[in-house]
Amino acid sequence: MRKLFLTTLLLVVLTGMSTLAAATPTTLTKEAAIEALKEIQGEVLDVAPSEIPGLYLVSVKMQGRNIPLYLDASGTYMFSGNIIDLKQRRNLTEDMFRRLNPVDMSAISMDDALPLGNLQAQQQIIVFTDPLCPYCSQLHTVLYQALEKEPNLLFQIVLLPMQPNSQRISQTIICNNSMEQLEQAFAGKALPEPDCDSDVLRKNHELAQSLQITGTPTLILPNGQIHAGYRAVEDLLKLINDNSVPVN
Predict the structure, then answer these.
(1) What is the separation of C-alpha 165 from the centre of its chain, rounded to a whole number of angstroms?
(2) What gap in Å lies between CA 123 and CA 154, rounded to an integer?
(3) Sheet of 114-117: strands edge to edge?
(4) pLDDT tens per residue across span 114-135
């Protein structure tokens, strides 16, 4: 009798657990996300599985920007913060924020940039660089390699001195609008003192701050996506190709 009672009790417990599991959603729908976030002043745009098992990436439009949030499949728990891929040393949340909020390339003035490449190219890439930054110097060499393989590109070089000693050098280059002087600085050669009064560098820093650019080199690709850091030529060309704009 005792054995029969225990067997019956176990079946009841297992049945209850099965019912609970069946009642727990395994997929987060957009409708469920809207319901879960109804108290938040924002519009749910999209729901997709995230890189983290069990979490869904929810794109929410708030105050004119698209914000990535994370919900579990039941819509009970929300995570709002940075998710870091330790192996790749990437901030996945920051990457997603940038993908959701591309830069409006047409709104950025290139009047004071140093052009490198085909001035008529439809695929234009903005390069924020510092004349005393070693990785910037290496990337500058890669830009020439990229143009050898794909001549129909235009790199717009924007000076963004991040180090105190870079300020004077950058000002000299700005005064003379000189790609030659930038390349001399990359080569470690001394430049003359600046001989003009220009606010270009201040504007460049304000632009970088508005785009949350905090280091060099940083690229803004043709479709407005921001990517930071040095890349070898094949990686750079693939990045540009993956983020190109339609050709008229």
Answers:
(1) 28
(2) 6
(3) 114-117, 154-159, 124-129, 218-220, 226-228
(4) 999 999 999 999 999 999 999 9
Task: Decide if 217 contacts 129 (C-beta within 8 A).
Answer: yes
Q: Which domain holds residue 61?
A: 30-100
User: Residue 53: which residues within 8 A CB-CB, separation 6 or more?
Assistant: none
- Cβ neighbours of 50 (radius 10 Å): 19
CA–CA gap between residue 248 and residue 114 (Å, rounded): 25
Structure tokens at 175: 């005064």
The domain that contains 223 carries what CATH number? 3.40.30.10
What pTM was computed for the model? 0.72
Contact 185, 155 (CB under 8 A): no
Alpha carbon separation from 96 to 60, 127, 192 (Å, rounded): 12, 21, 43
User: Which of 59, 127, 144, 53 is closest to 98 using CA atoms?
Assistant: 59
Condensed to tens digits (0 to 9), the pLDDT of residues 142-189 reads 999 999 999 999 999 999 999 889 999 999 999 999 999 999 999 999
C-alpha 86/C-alpha 198 separation (Å) is 42
Residues 89 and 113 reside in one and the same domain = no
Q: What are phi and psi of 92, to 5 degrees?
A: -65, -35
Residue 44 pairs in a beta bridge with 60
Q: How far apart are CA 218 and CA 228, in angstroms?
A: 4
User: Measured between alpha carbons, how far is 65 from 42 in angstroms, rounded to an integer?
Assistant: 10
In a domain, 21, yes or no: no
The CATH number assigned to the domain holding 34 equals 3.10.450.70
Between CA 207 and CA 193 the distance in angstroms is 25
